[in-house]
Amino acid sequence: MQCDYFDAGVCRSCHLLELGYPDQLARKQAQVAAVLAPVAPEVRWEEPVRSADAAFRNKAKMVVGGTLDAPTLGILGPGGVGVDLQACGLHSPGLQAALPVLAEFVQAARLTPYSVSERRGELKHLIVTESPDGELMVRWVLRSTESLARLRKHLPALREALPVVVASVNLQPEHKAILEGPEEIVLTEQETLTMRVNGIGLHLRPQSFFQTNTDVAAALYRHARDLVRQVDPSAVGDLYCGVGGFGLHVAAPGRSVVGVESSTQAIESARSTAEALALPGTRWYAADATSWALDASSERQPELVIVNPPRRGIGAELAGWLEASAVDHVVYSSCNVESLARDLARMPSLRPVSARLLDMFPHTEHHEVLVLLER
Fold first, then answer.
1. I want to staple 360 with a disulfide (CB 3.0 to 4.6 A). Which of 60, 213, 230, 333 is the partner?
2. Active site includes 88?
3. What is the total count of domains within the chain?
4. Quick check: helix, strand or coil at residue 357?
5. pLDDT band at 301, cuts 50/70/90?
């Protein structure tokens, strides 16, 4: 991918950009294999899943800087000065087309960019997600509700210019390096963006997590589905289920699926999709994954468990529960091979039999690894 921002030295987020993409992929494969080798010496590595090397991101997380008359959408440079990255080549074509329009909207609605050095202003971040159908979810992260009325006033004109189906304001009043706050104000009648993946319409709410690379996420879900089909369990637990991507993909007649996720919004989304697909064998709980596993005496213990934890991994308690349980297989999706290796070491009776690297994040060291464990 050619990037003028990288060449000019104004953005170095894609620090592997000078390596050819095949070399990047080989480097990642070697790195994750080396970290897992001590705890998975006999694991069989599948062919890595490649990504497009440009225009693959479905989400733009832009720091808003500059001034009201000349706002920047991008990152903060030295001294907290805004660096404009509206033409970032990582973003999908739909996002690239939308960002200049959204920059104009900042001016029209008089959304004063927040100044980190001066601790004044209103608009901190702009978060835009594009669905596979080309629809947009737009979120403005504001310091207060001061500009909410102006934003509402100008929103109809924005929706005439762009396919915005969900719009919201997130309130983050603190002077901290935090992307967003807990309070969300939805400004549109529609509250979910449909992310259609492998024929399944996943409902994404403003604060729900979804992978930023739709094509590789689709491959991740397909590969997990194939692994589950090989085992053919009658009961599956999907822990850290998010909006239900894994659980909904592996649901099948005669198979029960229980999804657990701490985000109430994500669980509501998973339930909505399950109802739309007429999947009565699925149940969804808003709860901490570890607490639910330790307390779920009323639930039938699954034969296979899918885990997709945050970067810290599943941790000692949940790994200990899996080790002591009657679960025969685990499908572990990890974005951090170091925490994955720690967790595998805590479950010695669950042997890694296959693993696959999925390149969600080209031009960086970040990775996704899917591992099948067998007791």
1. 213
2. no
3. 2
4. strand
5. confident
